[in-house]
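Attaching the record inline, Q. Sequence:
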Amino acid sequence: MGAGPAGSYAALRLAMLDVKTDVYEEHAEVGLPSHCAGHISIRSLKALGYYPLPKGIIENIFNAANFYSPSGTKFSIRLKTPVTCALNRAKFDQHIANQAQQAGATFHLGHTVQSLQIENNYVKGINIKNHPTVSSKIVIDAEGISSRLLHQTGLRGIDGKGLVYAVETEIDQVHDVEPHAVEVYLGSSAPGFYSWLIPRPDGSAKLGLATNHGNPQTYLKHLMTKHPIVKNQVKGAKIVKTSYHAIPLAGPINRAYVNGFLAVGDVVSQVKPTTGGGVIFGLTCGEIAASVAKSALKLGDFSAKSLSVYHKRCNETLNFDISFMLHLRRFLNSLSDERWDSVLRFCNRFGVAKALCDVEEIDYQGQMLMQLATKPAMLVALGYFGLLYLFANP
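Structure, as predicted:
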């Protein structure tokens, strides 16, 4: 259920395994409405077979990032090669769905799944608004953050305390912005998260933020008119599109399976706690879900015990990095505006940017840190950040 990237990719992998697969999507078109900035790691896309992509999907590539404190203190990272890209998320989602259909999956657009069909504690299918009930050996739930159907299984859903609320806009023009650098604004301009500006080659950009309290639209207005850097970068710009969505940052839920049922993607918070990115983790777990479902079909065993290997394999893949990122998110949220000034000045003074210049891995951030930890500048930085973390979280 759900034709976002996680659901469509699970369908693609199932179809490639010769499993009869049907995808039910409530919207009339895959990928719309689009809520995500689509800022994705090139390395992770390559690992999943999605780089390069067909023309029109990639909007820009980036080899730099500029970070700003609320007062305007700047820290810049210049990487040796492009590490991330910005995708047109609607076109990317449609590309995966088209691949799944070509592999044999059937997509049913404009079909709203109202409830699960549950018999003798087994999920046996789905009930669709204004359509007949559909029976299934296994249901894979990729409904997104709503978690409405997940709750019908008795599973505990997303931790509401870990949610941030985002506003994503497209603006028609920006000024004094590097064409291949992402702009990141830290601190009280977006409490509990951060703000971002992702430029396009034509001079337009994606501008957004997320916050764990208050109205994100109010913070966005303040960012555009009061922030010492942003107000000049977006001077005279018009917002041509706005969308809103919630992002789960608390890490994956404790259990994502029951008899006859698996859940994948945002619905079970397979999302990076640091950046809020869920595409790569969702695709990765979608592939695991497909593999486990195929094995269950082969054995004729759709019990929770049989399907529990899905959760185990997802944990083995993600848990180390998720745990690190949860601690890092807690640390980032503890920093005051004044402390952000100190942190960015420290990074400039001790050569942290040089230590990061050959970074390629940004999704599995715990593993990235292990690789960087031998560099002298990073050892000094880790000691400094560790002390800040201890003082902020005694």
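The radius of gyration is 21 Å. Residues 304-334 form the longest helix (31 residues).

More tomorrow.
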